[in-house]
C-alpha cells in the first residue's frame, strides 16, 4: 500500500514568537489554517473503512475531497516559499547569512525530524493495532528495518519504499526545498551587491521556469524538490513583490509571477499551477496592505496555523486507530462511520495540540539565541 499525500509544514516556535508573527502575517496563517484542514479531510475521505462505509450519505462530498482536496498542497508550497524568502532571502541583494549551508540544513533537518519521528512511532503503533482489529488494504504492512531507517533519514520516497504514514513525503520535500534555498544563499557569498542581486534573481527565475515548464510535467519526478520548485519559487517571488520598496520593482516581480504562471498554463494546463500562481498573486498584492482579521477569527486561525504541522503529522495514526475500532464494532453503520470521521478529525486536532504544546515547552526551555543572531522563521517548514 502506497501512501502519497500533500501538505505544508508549519512552525513549532515559541508561543510568543508565533503570536507576534501571526499578527504580522494573518493572511499566511489564514491560508495555512484552511489548507491544513482541507488536507486532513482529504485523507479522512481517502483512507480507512470509515469513508467507504459513510460514502452513501454524501458521495459527491467524498468525491470532491478525494479529487480536489489534495490541491491544498499548492497553497502550502507557495506560503512556504514566501516565508523562506522572508527569513533567508528577503530580497535579491540581501546580505548572505552568517550560518554555513551545511549547518543551516542540519538545523532544519532536526527541527523537521524530531516531531516527525514521534509521529512515525505513532503511525507504526496505530497500524499494528489496526491490523489486529480489521483487514483493510489502506492499512500499512509491518515495516521492514530498511523502511524505518529510510523514514528516519527522510529518503523513503527517493529509495522507492512504501510510506509508513500519510505525511512523511512532504517532510522530505520540504527539507529538499530548504536545502536548495540554503545552497542559493551560499552561492552568493563573496559577491558584490549588484552582481549578487542579479545572480540571485537569475537563478531563482531559471529554477522556477525549468520546474513549471519541464520538471512539474513529469510525474516520476515528484519525489524530488525540482518538481515543486515552481510553486515554492512563486511564493519567494511573491515575497519579493510584497516587500519591494520601489513600485517598479514590485510591478516587475508581479509581472514575473503572471508571465511564468501564464506560460506554464499555456504549455500544459494544470489546475495545481493555476492555484499556485493565484496564491502567489494574492500574497504579493494583499500582504503589503497589512490586513487584519476580525478579533473573533484571528485567535482560532492563529491556533490552527500554529498546530498545523503536528496535526498534519498525527492525523493519520489517529485515523487508523479510530477507523479500526469503529470498523470492528460497527462494520456496516454509515451514520456511525460518519460520526467516526468527525471524531477522528477532532482527536487529530487534540493530538496535534498536545505534541505542539510539548514542543513549545521544550523550545522555551532552550537557551535563547545570542544577541544579533538571525532566527529562522520556522513557519517556512510548513508545510509542509
Description:
With 384 residues, the chain is mostly helical. The chain has one domain (15-367). It has 15 helices and no strands. It has helices at 15-24, 26-44, 49-54, 59-68, 72-88, 101-133, 145-152, 168-187, 193-213, 229-243, 247-267, 271-286, 295-306, 308-329, 334-365. Helix 2 (26-44) packs antiparallel against helix 5 (72-88) and helix 2 (26-44) packs across helix 13 (295-306). The longest helix is centred in the first third of the chain and has 33 residues, at 101-133.
Briefly characterize the structure.
This protein is an all-alpha fold.
Write the layout of secondary structure elements.
Elements: H1 15-24, H2 26-44, H3 49-54, H4 59-68, H5 72-88, H6 101-133, H7 145-152, H8 168-187, H9 193-213, H10 229-243, H11 247-267, H12 271-286, H13 295-306, H14 308-329, H15 334-365
Annotation keywords:
disordered N terminus, mainly alpha, disordered C terminus, globular, 384 residues, 68% helix, 15 helices
Tally of individual helices: 15
Estimated structural class? mainly alpha
Mean pLDDT: 88
The whole-angstrom Rg is: 21 Å
As a percent range, the share of strand residues is: under 5%
Amino acid at each position: 500500500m502506497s501512501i502519497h499525500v500533500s501538505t505544508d509544514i508549519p512552525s513549532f516556535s515559541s508561543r510568543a514568537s508565533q503570536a507576534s508573527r501571526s499578527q504580522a502575517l494573518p493572511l499566511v496563517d489564514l491560508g495555512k489554517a484552511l489548507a491544513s484542514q482541507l488536507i486532513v479531510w482529504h485523507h479522512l475521505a481517502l483512507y480507512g473503512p470509515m469513508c467507504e462505509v459513510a460514502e452513501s450519505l454524501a458521495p459527491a462530498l467524498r468525491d470532491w475531497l478525494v479529487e480536489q482536496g489534495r490541491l491544498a498542497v499548492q497553497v502550502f508550497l507557495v506560503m512556504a516559499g514566501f516565508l523562506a524568502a522572508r527569513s533567508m532571502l528577503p530580497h535579491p541583494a540581501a546580505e548572505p547569512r552568517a550560518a554555513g549551508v551545511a549547518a543551516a540544513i542540519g538545523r532544519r533537518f532536526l527541527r523537521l525530524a524530531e516531531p516527525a519521528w514521534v509521529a512515525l512511532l505513532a503511525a507504526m503503533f496505530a497500524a499494528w493495532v489496526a491490523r489486529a482489529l480489521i483487514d483493510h488494504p489502506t492499512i500499512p504492512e509491518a515495516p521492514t528495518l530498511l523502511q524505518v531507517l529510510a523514514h528516519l533519514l527522510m529518503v523513503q520516497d527517493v529509495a522507492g519504499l512504501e510510506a509508513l504514514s500519510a505525511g512523511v513525503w512532504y517532510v522530505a520535500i520540504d527539507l529538499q526545498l530548504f536545502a536548495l534555498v540554503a545552497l542559493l544563499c551560499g552561492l552568493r557569498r563573496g559577491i558584490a551587491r549588484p552582481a549578487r542581486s542579479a545572480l540571485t534573481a537569475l537563478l531563482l527565475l531559471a529554477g522556477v521556469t525549468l520546474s513549471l515548464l519541464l520538471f512539474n510535467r513529469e510525474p516520476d519526478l515528484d519525489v524530488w524538490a525540482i518538481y515543486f520548485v515552481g510553486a515554492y519559487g512563486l511564493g519567494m517571488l511573491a515575497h519579493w513583490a510584497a516587500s519591494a520598496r520601489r513600485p517598479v520593482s514590485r510591478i516587475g516581480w508581479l509581472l514575473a509571477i503572471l508571465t511564468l504562471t501564464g506560460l506554464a498554463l499555456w504549455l500544459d494546463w494544470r489546475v495545481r499551477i493555476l492555484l499556485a500562481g493565484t496564491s502567489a498573486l494574492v500574497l504579493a498584492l494583499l500582504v503589503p496592505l497589512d490586513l487584519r482579521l476580525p478579533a473573533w477569527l484571528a485567535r482560532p486561525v492563529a491556533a490552527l496555523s500554529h498546530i498545523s504541522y503536528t496535526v498534519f503529522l498525527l492525523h493519520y495514526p489517529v485515523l487508523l486507530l479510530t477507523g479500526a475500532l469503529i470498523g470492528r464494532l460497527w462494520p456496516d453503520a454509515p451514520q456511525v462511520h460518519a460520526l467516526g470521521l468527525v471524531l477522528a478529525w477532532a482527536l487529530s486536532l487534540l493530538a496535534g495540540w498536545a505534541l505542539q504544546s510539548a514542543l513549545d515547552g521544550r523550545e522555551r526551555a532552550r537557551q535563547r539565541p545570542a544577541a544579533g543572531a538571525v532566527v529562522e522563521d520556522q513557519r517556512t517548514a510548513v508545510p509542509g
